[in-house]
């Protein structure tokens, strides 16, 4: 069966006073129907830019989609004009943005913002749109939905605003939801509630979910498959369980070692990845992770390694992957 979303060799550039930045460089991955796929990496790795490119939300200028295809049910979204892509945004592909306080309009009521998309995309009357908005707020666990519709974003807590964003994303019954760091700035209890709501709704409604995050705890619990990004490229991909059991790229190993885990001895210190992410204006000729990698050898500094299949759906862009999997020290 063909994937719902197919991203092929996507490239996105930004023109800056210091030169051209290749924020996304040859990224390819799929999202199947009803599947939860995670895009993981440090800040600046290209995750959000990849997500925004799907719906042509890159500001042009200074940004530019330099190449590649984004196929949604076989249709290349990058080839659509503005009028055509508007029918896809919100209706067939919805997005939950990183910070709801800046995504919701502060001068419009919650009800006005929720019913607008329903009336535009589904052609509902004002009364029917309001009735559906009440049902959606109730569905995402917001008490007194009638009253909340009359309120404004600043009158809601961070967790409630994010629930409103999820309700808005689900309002037109999309086939795919893109969630860009949906739990940023929320405490861990609210994070868990938000993610449980999203997973439950996607499972029940058959909606695919592309979740962008740097939180590997989220990935372990909620994702079916994972794509790890570094410096604009995917450096590892595969089923979430396999990636945690047998990470196949030094960067993935570094991410896993730098977060607290219950299966480690008490008191064992975390192991941060040495160095800093590369300057995208001055990427090295070889593997972008080589300056921070203890396994790097001469070939790693000559050309970037291709993403190659390892079996069982896992792939890694590392020349030294065999040494890594064998546990050979640097």
From TrEMBL:
SUPFAM superfamilies: P-loop containing nucleoside triphosphate hydrolases. One of its GO terms (biological process) is transmembrane transport. The keyword Metal-binding does not apply. Its main location: membrane. GO terms for molecular function: ATP binding; ATP hydrolysis activity. It holds the Pfam family oligo_HPY. It is found in: Cell inner membrane. InterPro entries: AAA+_ATPase, ABC_Ni/Peptide_Import, ABC_transporter-like_ATP-bd, ABC_transporter-like_CS, Oligopep_ABC_C, P-loop_NTPase. Keywords: ATP-binding, Cell membrane, Membrane, Nucleotide-binding, Transport. Residues 7-256 form the ABC transporter domain. The keyword Chaperone does not apply. PANTHER family: DIPEPTIDE TRANSPORT ATP-BINDING PROTEIN DPPD, OLIGOPEPTIDE TRANSPORT ATP-BINDING PROTEIN APPD. This is Peptide/nickel transport system ATP-binding protein/oligopeptide transport system ATP-binding protein. The lineage of its organism: Bacteria, Pseudomonadati, Pseudomonadota, Alphaproteobacteria, Rhodospirillales.
């Amino acid at each position: 069966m063909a994937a719902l979303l197919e991203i092929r060799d996507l490239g996105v550039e930004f023109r800056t006073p210091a030169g051209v930045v290749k924020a996304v460089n040859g990224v390819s991955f799929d999202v199947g129907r009803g599947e939860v796929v995670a895009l993981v990496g440090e800040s600046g790795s290209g995750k959000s830019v990849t997500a925004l490119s799907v719906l042509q939300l890159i500001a042009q200028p200074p940004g530019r989609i330099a190449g590649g295809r984004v196929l949604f049910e076989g249709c290349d979204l990058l080839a659509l004009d503005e009028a055509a892509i508007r029918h896809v945004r919100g209706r067939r592909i919805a997005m939950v943005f990183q910070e709801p306080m800046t995504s919701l309009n502060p001068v419009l009521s919650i009800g006005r913002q929720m019913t607008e998309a329903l009336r535009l995309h589904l052609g509902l009357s004002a009364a029917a749109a309001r009735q559906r908005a009440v049902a959606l707020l109730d569905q995402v666990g917001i008490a007194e939905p009638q009253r909340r519709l009359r309120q404004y974003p600043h009158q809601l807590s961070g967790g409630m605003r994010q629930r409103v964003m999820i309700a808005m994303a689900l309002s037109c019954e999309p086939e795919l939801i893109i969630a860009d760091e949906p739990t940023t700035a929320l405490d861990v209890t609210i994070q868990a509630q938000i993610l449980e709501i999203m997973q439950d709704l996607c499972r029940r409604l058959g909606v695919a979910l592309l979740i962008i995050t740097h939180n590997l705890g989220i990935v372990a619990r909620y994702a079916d498959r994972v794509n790890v990004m570094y410096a604009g490229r995917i450096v590892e991909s595969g089923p979430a369980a396999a990636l945690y059991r047998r990470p196949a790229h030094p960067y993935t190993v570094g991410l896993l070692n730098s977060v607290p885990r219950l299966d480690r001895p008490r008191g064992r210190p975390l192991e941060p990845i040495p160095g800093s992410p590369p300057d995208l204006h001055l990427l090295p000729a070889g593997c972008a992770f080589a300056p921070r990698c203890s396994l790097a050898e001469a070939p790693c500094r000559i050309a970037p390694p291709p993403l190659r299949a390892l079996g069982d759906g896992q792939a890694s862009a590392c020349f030294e992957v065999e040494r890594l999997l064998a546990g050979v020290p640097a």
